[in-house]
Amino acid sequence: YMRTQNFIENSFIPYSFQGMETDDEVKGEGNSYTTEYRQCDPRIGRWLSLDPVVHPNQSPYCSMDNNPILLNDPLGTTAGDYYTTDGKHIGSDGNNDDLGYTVNESDVVYKSDGKTIDKDKTAGATQFTDKHYEFTISSNVVKHESSGDKTESLWIAHTANNAKDNNAIDYQKDNTTLYDQLTDQGYSTTPASARTPLSNTDNSVNAKNARAAVINVLSGGVDPTGGAVLWDGQDFIEDGTASNKYSEYSKVSIGTEALKAYHDFWSGKTDVFHVFTMSRNLNKGSYISGGFNKVYNLYSKGAEGGSIFWGIMKNPDFEKGRKQPGPIPKNAAQCTPPVPACLKGSLWGQ
Question: What is the pTM of this model?
Fold first, then answer.
């Protein structure tokens, strides 16, 4: 690559080819560029680390698709930035600018190579992110957290998005984006393998549903959860009252519909904790007192696929300085704050 010439005596220009940062200390003058995500050796046109997103037709160390004159990659991210709104990866315009677009597949026009999308001739593309690399990781986390159900994936993405704005969840206010929240190991306990980019060659139903969910959030879609900020999957229905939820919250309340849907999904697939199989709870909803004198109460917002989703609200007993939780409210009028609509008919909101 051509090195940027410096005509100013005794000065240093830190940026060079394609806006990459020059790092002469690594391999000598002009022999190493640093991007936001990785390093490039311009002498051989190769990245120094593997591309985590698989491109079957080329080496994982290949940069700019072996065409640095026509294409650019100032961030060191990956090609693969056009999707349908249902999460199918269509292709790339070859310009690795970290942008992601949604487009109708029928509107896509390709360049003469038959592979690269012609951005100028493709009509109706809508940008949904300027952090495509983070989008691929967020999608992979949602894929791992979900059973694969389309609605469940959508609820997980919106729940995490709600949590980043909830001081009770992100009390240190460290998370400002959906990506921040989903990759926060104190929030989502997915393995390290899940916090990597979702391959653009993965167009399985689960992958498409995960991408579609994240696209919906990043595109400003309506939150279907009613403000959920947490969720649980298989571990909660197996652990029951041994779950940490019952020690972290003063009251854990599950509405009838949510409990039945959650129970029906896992019944026959795993050992369901006995409280969740009792007919009186399935008919009336499950109320179980949790940890005494805690700041918040936990209540179900709904259940989709293999997950149950939670909202939280201040515990009125804690507000009043009680050391033990008060009596179970007999009706909505006795609840402070009023019982959420999703709990009416449950043991807590009857």
Answer: 0.73
- Measured distance CA(307)–CA(3) in Å, rounded: 54
| Rounded-to-integer distance, Cα 113 and Cα 339, Å | 60
Cβ atoms of 315 and 329 within 8 Å: the answer is no
Helix and strand element counts for the chain (H, E): 10, 13
Instruction: Give the Cα separation of 14 and 24 in Å (integer).
Output: 10
What is the total residue count of the chain? Answer: 350
Dihedral pair phi/psi, residue 159, rounded to 5° = -60, -45
Q: By the 8 A CB rule, do 86 and 205 touch?
A: no
Read off the pLDDT of residues 238-277 as tens digits, 9 standing for 90 and up: 998 888 888 888 888 888 889 889 999 999 999 988 777 7
Of 80, 61, 261, the C-alpha closest to 155 is 261
Residue 197: helix, strand or coil by DSSP? coil
Reference 221, options 34, 60, 86; nearest CA is 86
**Strand, coil or helix: what is 339?**
coil
Residue with tokens 């959906």: 178
Q: What percentage of residues in the chain have a pLDDT greater than 70?
A: 70
